[in-house]
Automatic annotation (TrEMBL):
Alphabetic keyword roster: Membrane, Oxidoreductase, Transmembrane, Transmembrane helix
Top-level taxon: Bacteria
PROSITE patterns in alphabetical order: 3HCDH
Domain 3-hydroxyacyl-CoA dehydrogenase NAD binding per the UniProt entry, residue ranges: 14-192
Iron as UniProt keyword: no
Species in which this protein is naturally found: Labrys miyagiensis
Protein name per Swiss-Prot or TrEMBL: 3-hydroxyacyl-CoA dehydrogenase
Family, per entry: Belongs to the 3-hydroxyacyl-CoA dehydrogenase family.
Ranges for domain 3-hydroxyacyl-CoA dehydrogenase C-terminal: 196-263
InterPro entries: 3-OHacyl-CoA_DH_CS, 3-OHacyl-CoA_DH_NAD-bd, 3HC_DH_C, 6-PGluconate_DH-like_C_sf, 6PGD_dom2, NAD(P)-bd_dom_sf
Length: 322
């Protein structure tokens, strides 16, 4: 399989979307906002009738916040809602499946998509945890199939995990990456298939501990949310977890691991987890951080982080939560 490259300088190609749930509609916003025509298939007649109003509402909100560059009605006009997958796939350069997270359903959908779509069309699943190997390994056109898992909603949270199976071709991955980037997404390649990928494994680790803290009477649901909202989440909206601890400790991430690693190991052991930060692992992580930020630039980056947080806090004060 050798998919043609997306014509990013000439939007107006057709994107097929399978499923009219929240993620399917959100992807319709992403691609229509980028200038593509979108055909979204939804088998349920009632839901199909609801999609245009939901789409218009989301685009209206984006317009109210000056996050689109043309009238909402012009973007909405690029989206056609159809009943059958065959209609959505016809003439499409890329198909994004957004059906519910059920293995048997995805297996059936991709068997049909593989039959309907031209061999040059890349087929992607918005699966949150199920790998492409689980639903596509026996398909004749499996080399053009991968997972593209977005943050929700993708028209506001641009990260998109690209998770190829071992059988997915490099051409399919490159095509998906270029198309997503041209539509304003931030594609991230996940190097190997693993249930939950990266986004949901990180989210799941925090959620598991949050449930335990509530169960054990350590904190209330609202207090856990407050700590994340006003603490971890505030900081993580500027920098990620590795850079956070790198900048929190004089000497960087290696110093942090030396000082705090034993405490984190004890916390993990309380939950039955045994994943030590071995010297080799710490050395690998530290080397990647130092390649991104030499220690001589550490103080300047700390000051940058603080200024970014100041700007964010200023914005939050100006736009208080409802």
């Amino acid at each position: 399989m050798s998919p043609a490259q997306p014509e990013t300088d000439h939007p107006g190609k057709t994107i097929g979307i399978v499923g009219g749930g929240s993620i399917g509609i959100a992807f319709a916003v992403v691609f229509a906002r980028a200038g593509h025509r979108v055909r979204l298939s939804e088998p349920d007649e009632t839901r199909r009738g609801e999609v245009p109003a939901i789409l218009a509402h989301k685009l209206g909100d984006l317009a109210a916040f000056n996050l689109i560059d043309e009238p909402a009605s012009a973007i909405a006009a690029r989206v056609e809602v159809v009943a059958d997958m065959a209609e959505a796939v016809a003439g499409a350069i890329y198909v994004q499946e957004c059906a519910p997270e059920r293995l048997a359903l995805k297996q059936a959908i991709f068997a049909e998509l593989d039959r309907l779509a031209s061999p040059a069309v890349v087929l992607a699943s918005a699966s949150s945890a199920i790998t492409a190997s689980a639903f596509a390994r026996d398909l004749p056109g499996r080399d053009r199939i991968l997972v593209v898992h977005p943050g929700n909603p993708p028209f506001l949270i641009p990260v998109a995990e690209m998770v190829p199976a071992p059988f997915t071709s490099g051409e399919a991955v490159a095509f998906a990456r270029e198309l997503l980037a041209s539509a304003g997404m931030a594609p991230v390649l996940v190097n190997k298939e693993i249930e939950g990928f990266v986004f949901n494994r990180l989210q799941g680790a925090l959620l598991r501990e949050a449930y335990c803290l509530v169960r054990d009477g350590v904190a209330s649901v609202e207090d856990v949310d407050r700590i994340v909202r006003e603490g971890l989440g505030l900081r993580w909206s500027v920098i990620g977890p590795f850079e956070t601890v790198d900048l929190n400790t004089q000497g960087g991430i290696a110093s942090h691991a030396e000082k705090m690693g034993p405490a984190y190991a004890r916390m993990g052991a309380e939950r039955g987890q045994d994943d030590p930060w071995t010297p080799g692992l710490v050395e690998k992580v530290a080397a990647e951080r130092r390649a991104l930020l030499p220690l001589e630039g550490w103080a300047e980056r700390v000051a940058w982080r603080d200024r970014r947080l100041m700007a964010l806090i200023r914005h939050r004060k100006a736009e208080p939560a409802a």
